[in-house]
Amino acid sequence: MTTMTDTSLREFKMPDVGEGLTEAEILKWYVQPGDTVTDGQIVCEVETAKAAVELPIPYDGVVRSLHFPEGTTVDVGTSIIAVDVSGGAAPAPAEETAPAKPAAEPRPAEPAPAKPAGRKPVLVGYGVAESSTKRRPRKGVPPVVAPVEDTLYGATALQSVQGELNGHGPHGATAPRPLAKPPVRKLAKDLGVDLTTVTPSGPDGIITREDVHAAVAPPKAPEPATAAPVPAAAPAAAPAPVVSYDGARETRVPVKGVRKATAAAMVGSAFTAPHVTEFVTVDVTRTVKLVEELKQDKDMQGLRVNPLLLIAKALLVAIKRNPDINASWDEAAQEIVVKHYVNLGIAAATPRGLIVPNIKDAHAKTLPQLAESLGELVSTAKEGRTSPAAMQGGTVTITNVGVFGIDTGTPILNPGESAILAVGAIKPQPWVHKGKVKPRQVTTLALSFDHRLVDGELGSKVLADVAAILEQPKRLITWA
Predict the structure, then answer these.
(1) 148 pLDDT tier (thresholds 50, 70, 90)
(2) Which residues are identified as catalytic?
(3) Whole-angstrom distance, CA of residue 24 vs CA of residue 42
(4) Per-residue model confidence (pLDDT) at position 143
């Protein structure tokens, strides 16, 4: 039988969709083996440490195989999908990954020849990948293949692969390792249940949570005024677990993607740059009134006009008056790098975690242009479509904690930046205005800065300028 030649097969590799990213998680496949694809068609969505990104295929052809399932973290440069560009139909699944037959096949009575060393197939119907990409096991858990959803690949075939990888193949001397998903294994470990003694009730012999609970002997009724006995085998420093892992008491969320990158960046920033935070409370009544007037201005129609717009403009004016605040610390070169442009970052909370896209060259934008850029930035972030490029190269950041009703905070610097401004909630408060106590719109601003390159005087001048502009927004004209 004639098989498809290698020249008709194109392997699409995981690209570096950011700056120097090394891996990405496959969130969703939009195609399946046998589907016809065209150049530029979106075939999958992946999540990097920066954002979720859709990947287009650069070929016309028929999908031959998907090398990894959804949820797999794949190294950049690893092939993730194979496309037949010959124009023919996709081969049958059985032929997709079958290795070339040897010159003489062993007789049925002979033992099967030893498989070559190297990474074994991790999924039914998928070939052996040359990369070391794999599902990352939790610490302390043996490196076995993670269970795959039964509705996609079938637990029976999965059991064969899992047993083979654990040294329990069909010709092995030991019994197959019990099939159970990681949360169920964790539950069994905490309850002291040996999974090899549990009778599975799940499809294709998978052990469920209910099976583990059923294997636990019913506890004796506690005697009045008597403390519960501690098992003799339990260490004195480790009391019996009191937390349930059946979903009723706690939920475990894997730290990955945007949240993992944010956590690493914040830890690195907090313990690298010496942070100083200063605060000022300011009457922003005139700014609030100006926002309402701008909403009616014909030049601002259809644009996002709110206090954040004027706060952003105020910060840009303050940076123009104090340019040394817009800098970064180059540890390797032992230099302070002063930026003559402002890429204004806006911290945005998304379902995948906190991201900080920035408005490129915000210093050069008019107020309507800045409003348009802010609107696009916020909308894109809410839709989860912020590109990695939009989060690169920021110079200074604004985080608006006031939208959550918070008065102020001590924000952590975005890595590579020297300052971040936190904006608190704008609330009516009693305020001394023209010698009388009146209700005024008041907010608190907090500026954190890197004390290696920003001293107290510079930081104070910037914060004072922002406050002065928001108190008297006409300074946006006289100071600009």
Answers:
(1) very low
(2) 451
(3) 16
(4) 40
Judged on CB neighbours under 10 Å (0-12, 13-18, 19+), 432 is exposed
> How far, in Å, CA of 478 to CA of 474, rounded?
7
Q: How many of the other CB atoms lie within 10 Å of CB of 404?
A: 10
pLDDT at 297: 94
pLDDT value, residue 37: 93
Task: Give the max Cα distance, the chain.
Answer: 104
CB atoms within 10 A of CB 445: 24
Once rounded to an integer, what is the mean pLDDT over residues 26-53? 87
β partners of residue 25 = 47, 73
Length of the chain: 480
| Dist. CA 474–CA 179, nearest whole Å | 70
Burial category of 4 from C-beta neighbours within 10 Å (exposed 0-12, middle 13-18, buried 19 and up): middle
Q: What is the 3-class SS of the chain, one letter each residue?
A: CCCCCHHHEEEEECCCCCCCCCEEEEEEECCCCCCEECCCCEEEEEECCCCEEEEECCCCEEEEEECCCCCCEEECCCEEEEEECCCCCCCCHHHHCCCCCCCCCCCCCCCCCCCCCCCCCCCCCCCCCCCCCCCCCCCCCCCCCCCCCHHHHCHHHHHHHHHHHCCCCCCCCCCCCCEECHHHHHHHHHHCCCHHHCCCCCHHHEECHHHHHHHCCCCCCCCCCCCCCCCCCCCCCCCCCCCCCCCCCCCCCCCCHHHHHHHHHHHHHHCCCCEEEEEEEEECHHHHHHHHHHHCCHHHCCCCCCHHHHHHHHHHHHHHHCHHHCEEEECCCCEEEECCCCCEEECEEECCEEECCEECCHHHCCHHHHHHHHHHHHHHHHCCCCCHHHHCCCCEEEEEHHHHCCCCCCCCCCCCCCEEEEECCCEEEEEEECCEEEEEEEEEEEEEEECCCCCHHHHHHHHHHHHHHHHCCCHHHHCC
Q: What is the pLDDT of residues 266-284, one digit of tens each?
A: 777 777 778 999 999 999 9
pLDDT, one tens digit per residue, over 304-335 is: 999 999 999 999 999 999 999 999 988 888 89
Q: Given the structure tokens 């002063």, which residue do they identify?
A: 338
| CA distances, 3 to each of 71, 105, 121, 127, 180 (Å) | 31, 19, 21, 16, 38
